[in-house]
Amino acid sequence: NTEQTEEWLQSYVDDWVAFYRKHTTDGEVASYIPVLQEADPDNLGITIIGKNGITIRSGDDSIPFTMQSISKVLSFIVGCMERGVAYMLDRVDVEPAGEAFNSIIHLEMKQVKKPFNPLINAGAITVTSLLEGKTSDEKLKPILELLEDMLGYRPAINVEVYESERDSSMRNRAIGYYLLEVGFLESDLNITLETYFKQCSIEVTMDDLARIGMILANDGEDPDTQEEIIPRQVARIAKALMLTCGMYDASGKFATYVGIPAKSGVSGGILAAVPPRVREEELPFLDGCGIGVYGPALDDKGNSIAGIRLLRHIAKQWDLSIF
Ligand code: GLN
Predict the structure, then answer these.
(1) Is 153 a catalytic residue?
(2) DSSP string, 248-314
């Protein structure tokens, strides 16, 4: 029964979190956005939400953190819902870049007609410029509404983190000016960047990421209510992008060793969606579950160092790889 299963899974996850917490010392908290440096590098936690409300929560839960790059999945989804998939994919490609998330190098290559994908900064800033609305608040509103549909509450923007990034992000401004010069942006640059910094500063918890992950895992449908929150085609593209580009230039390794569509952010969060597949063994309720991880100590690619190792361990033990 559900309760026994929950208890049984819980005891495993507690052990694994305790073990991988020791790995947090191998990483470092992001510092290029000054306020993010205040995070506690020892923190590590995970929430798994599966069928029938089954919830496993371990480690430092309930610590709020900002979405950062994880928000790129949502802005892309909202863009597709507002403008249609064809419109978006005409303007942003869906190919892994194999470069750091804030790389500028590809933009200068002559054959590049659009940013590589919506999950690197150049693509994400372009996506944000395609969102409807004239002001940053108008552009953000549908993102916050989508989150509210999924989470049951409307998350807030962490103003301190927003201002910290706004006042420090020379690289993103450089990317923005480049995009403007080559004509990829469809909104005013300053409004686009303001929106982008605000979406990165939306504050969530591991539980929130697990719920979003579960809805994506189920092709955009909330399995509790059977309500379609994200159109199926859009949810599937989002997962394909997460799998191929979601962990920056470590996406190939993550697909190889973990095998789950996931998206990380430099605040240390990871959103993961475990798509349902027919399985015969004893863990069917993990089919279609969502996973949220928080661990602000990062590896050199900008992914939660202990978070990735924890996910890798869980995916192996419970056979979660989609391959
Ligand atoms: N706001 C961050 C930036 O643009 C997001 C990057 C990330 O999470 N990788 O630099």
Answers:
(1) no
(2) GGGHHHHHHHT-S-EEE-TTSEEEEE-------SS-GGGTT-EEEEE---B-TTSSBHHHHHHHHHH
CATH topology match: 2-65+205-317 vs 68-200: yes
Tokens of 239: 């997962």
Give me the amino acid identity at 165.
Answer: E
In the set 35, 92, 161, 196, the catalytic residue is 196
CATH number of 68-200: 3.40.710.10
Q: Per-residue pLDDT tens, the chain, 323 aa: give them.
A: 777 878 888 999 999 999 999 999 999 999 999 999 999 999 999 999 997 788 999 999 889 999 999 999 999 999 999 999 999 999 999 988 877 777 777 776 666 788 989 999 999 999 999 999 999 999 999 999 999 999 999 999 999 999 999 999 899 999 999 999 999 999 999 999 999 999 999 999 999 999 999 999 999 999 989 999 999 999 999 999 999 999 988 999 999 999 999 999 999 999 999 988 766 566 777 889 999 999 999 999 999 999 999 999 999 999 899 99
Residue 13 phi, psi (nearest 5) = -60, -40
Per the listing, tokens 């020791």 go with 22
92: annotated binding-site residue? no
For the question of residue 196 being annotated catalytic, the response is yes
pTM of the model: 0.96
43 within ligand 1 shell (Cβ under 6 A): no
Please say if 201 is a catalytic residue: no
Q: Which class is 2-65+205-317 in CATH?
A: alpha beta
165 is in an annotated binding site: yes
Domain boundaries, the chain: 2-65+205-317, 68-200
Residue identified by tokens 């697909």 is 255
Residue 234 marked in a binding site: no
Residue nearest to atom 2 of ligand 1 (CA): 68
Question: Is residue 68 in contact with ligand 1, taking CB distance under 6 Å?
Answer: yes
